[in-house]
């Protein structure tokens, strides 16, 4: 595979072209299959009057091969214009830009790939990351680069971005560095899970500064671990109430300007309370109530989604009144979600609550 001459890692941008050798190899393989289709047609000829049933099947197969693999040749030629662009701003894949702010868990891994043209499996280097636009995988074998080069570049550009934007990085000796994520926790047997919970609570009790640093540094690259932390700390809510309330509000504030607000909202949904009558817990209901007045409907929707967990029959009636007022909101999704929330909360008087038929239909979408 041919390689590009990588620029110094202090460069602001590196453009990696699609590999001509890779493309030609695939085009050659597809061409053989196209010619095989023509050869099959040549052998059965066009004497339709004497065709047997098998000849019609061969004809369909041959035409299918010609069009299917011919289309693959056209696609491969069009890919020659593709560029993989790495910079201190982010990563561009197939003309879609992903900013470092929204990128998380960027890494280069070895992965088994299947070559459709050659018909065999091979181990390839894959650049993969998650962003606000979804999960992304790039087969580096198809570009003029290699695993080592891209690994160095993404690390360098990530560091440049962090330094330029003063993004705090986690200290190497933080005691929470190697904790498992929530998904791994769910896979544990009951005794092992309890042991992990107890371990986290002991670490948190003895290393509160490390806990704060861990939760507030490089959030997007460890959402799974934070979900586990918040879940375990919520099990001892009375002890960690002030910390969890502060984290909830901080994360919601982050979500308001984030490219990946959904992940942050799902994260703080993990924070649960024993008693929302405490002054600390009431702060969340009051905070979310204020966010119902936010001019951004998406933020209002997030507030409506979360506030249900933080209100009960003893909640301040001004908060309940604020929720009811959203039935008149200009955004039909907000009206629908306010209506749904009121109907789901049996402690809210809803006998006089009405929503138009069209709002009920359209608000769901």
Characterise this structure.
The strands form 2 sheets. A 4-stranded antiparallel sheet has the order 1-2-3-4, with helices on one face. It has 365 residues and is of the alpha+beta class. It folds into 2 domains: 152 residues, no CATH class; 181 residues, Leucine-rich Repeat Variant. Helices cover 52% and strands 13% of the residues.
Summarize the structure.
The protein has 365 residues and is an alpha+beta fold. It has two domains: 13-164, no CATH class; 182-362, Leucine-rich Repeat Variant, CATH 1.25.10.
Spell out the helices and strands N to C. Answer: EHHEEEEEEHHHHHHHHHHHH
How are the strands ordered across the major sheet? 1-2-3-4
Average pLDDT figure: 86
CATH class wording of the largest domain: Mainly Alpha
Which structural category fits the helices and strands?
A: alpha+beta
Distance between the termini: 48 Å
């Amino acid at each position: 595979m041919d390689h590009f001459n990588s620029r110094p890692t202090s460069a602001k941008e590196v453009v990696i072209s699609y590999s001509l050798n890779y493309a030609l190899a695939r085009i050659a393989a597809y061409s053989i299959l196209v010619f095989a289709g023509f050869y099959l047609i040549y052998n059965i000829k066009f004497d339709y009057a004497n065709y047997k049933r098998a000849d019609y099947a061969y004809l369909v197969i041959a035409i299918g091969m010609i069009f299917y693999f011919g289309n693959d040749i056209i696609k491969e030629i069009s890919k020659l214009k593709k560029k993989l662009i790495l910079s201190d701003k982010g990563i561009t894949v197939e003309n879609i830009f992903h900013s470092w702010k929204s990128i998380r868990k960027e890494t280069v891994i070895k992965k088994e790939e299947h070559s459709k043209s050659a018909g065999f499996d091979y181990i390839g280097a894959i650049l993969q990351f998650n962003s606000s636009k979804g999960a992304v995988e790039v087969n580096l074998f198809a570009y003029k680069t290699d695993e080592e080069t891209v690994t160095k570049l993404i690390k360098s550009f990530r560091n440049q971005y962090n330094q330029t934007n003063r993004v705090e990085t986690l200290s190497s000796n933080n005691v929470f560095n190697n904790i498992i994520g929530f998904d791994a926790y769910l896979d544990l047997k009951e005794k092992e899970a309890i042991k992990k919970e107890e371990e986290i609570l002991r670490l948190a009790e003895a290393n509160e500064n490390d806990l704060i640093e861990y939760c507030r540094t490089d959030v997007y690259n460890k959402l799974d671990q934070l979900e586990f932390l918040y879940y375990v700390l919520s099990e001892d809510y009375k002890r960690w109430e002030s910390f969890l309330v502060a984290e909830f509000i901080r994360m919601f504030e982050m979500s308001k300007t984030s490219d990946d607000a959904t992940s942050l909202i799902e994260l703080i949904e993990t924070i649960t309370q024993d008693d929302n009558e405490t002054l600390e817990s009431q702060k969340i209901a009051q905070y979310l109530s204020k966010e119902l007045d936010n001019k951004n409907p998406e933020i209002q929707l997030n507030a409506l989604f979360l506030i249900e967990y933080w209100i009960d029959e003893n909640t301040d009636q001004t908060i309940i009144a604020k929720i009811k007022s959203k039935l008149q909101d200009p955004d039909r999704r907000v009206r629908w979600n306010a209506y749904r929330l009121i109907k789901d909360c049996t402690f809210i008087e809803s006998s006089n609550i009405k929503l138009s038929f069209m709002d009920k239909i359209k608000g769901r979408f």
